[in-house]
Design a protein that fits this description.
Length: 238
């Protein structure tokens, strides 16, 4: 029996980011998306291409989401943006089921840990990606950025992590595991008290200061850093 928790011990929650996390960066979804976003900026704000690219980058850095800046400063309809960017991505051609991902998720002990998706994308995109990866069955729910509710709540705002915890039905920060490829998202999660692995894929330069205690190169390394979440592990907390 585990002895790390006292009294009733509900399942912990393992939050998974989706994009560039459940599938590798090499699928280049990020590039496809960046291109559609640049086009959206150029078209809808009537900007020359270089200005569109620059502003996109600026909003992404300031707000974590390009669309946040568009809505704040340009009265863009976020659902129109979603339709022309996220939903317009030709994902069927690039995101394929990955046996190693299914194996990894299947090896997590769901009697101890609830799997939950946690994304800054809108729900359509989240559902589409996990469907293409054929991993929907492993996740009990998803916390997404609701583009229909302005101003947005998204990672790394503390309110977004609290929303995720509420939706996943977990009360204590120390009962939350998390993996994300975003430095800022990982840093904030750890500050709040989550146990966090920052995914820095091979070929991506590791940050000078790590975002959090655990930094991994492959999603499979979760087995090593969070063994207590996997089947066949000894009692947790040791
Ligand atoms: Mg990501």
């Amino acid at each position: 029996m585990g002895c790390a928790t006292n009294g009733v011990s509900p399942r912990k929650v393992f939050f998974f980011d989706i994009d560039n996390c459940l599938y590798p960066r090499s699928t280049k979804v990020h590039d496809l998306m960046a291109d559609l976003i640049d086009k959206y900026f150029a078209t809808h704000l009537s900007l020359p291409w270089e200005d569109a690219v620059r502003l996109h980058k600026e909003y992404y850095q300031n707000y974590g989401l390009a669309i946040e800046g568009l809505v704040r400063h340009h009265q863009i309809d976020p659902l129109d943006y979603n339709a022309k960017v996220d939903d317009a991505l030709p994902l069927d051609d690039v995101i394929k089921p990955r046996p190693e991902l299914k194996k990894l998720l299947g090896d997590i002990d769901q009697s101890k840990v609830k799997l939950w998706l946690f994304t800054n994308a809108y729900i359509n995109h989240a559902k589409r990606v996990v469907r293409l990866l054929e991993v929907e069955e492993f996740f009990e729910g998803v916390t997404y950025c609701d583009y229909s509710s302005v101003p947005f709540t998204c990672k790394p705002q503390p309110a977004m992590y609290q929303k995720a915890m509420r939706e996943a039905g977990v009360e204590r920060y120390e009962d939350c595991f998390f993996v994300d490829d975003s430095y800022q998202n990982c840093k904030k999660a750890q500050e709040l008290g989550w146990t966090v692995a920052h995914l820095v894929e091979d070929g991506v330069k590791p940050p000078k200061t790590p975002a959090c205690k655990f930094q991994i190169r492959h999603l499979d390394d979760l087995r090593t850093v969070f063994p207590q979440c996997f089947k066949g592990s000894a009692s947790e907390g040791s």
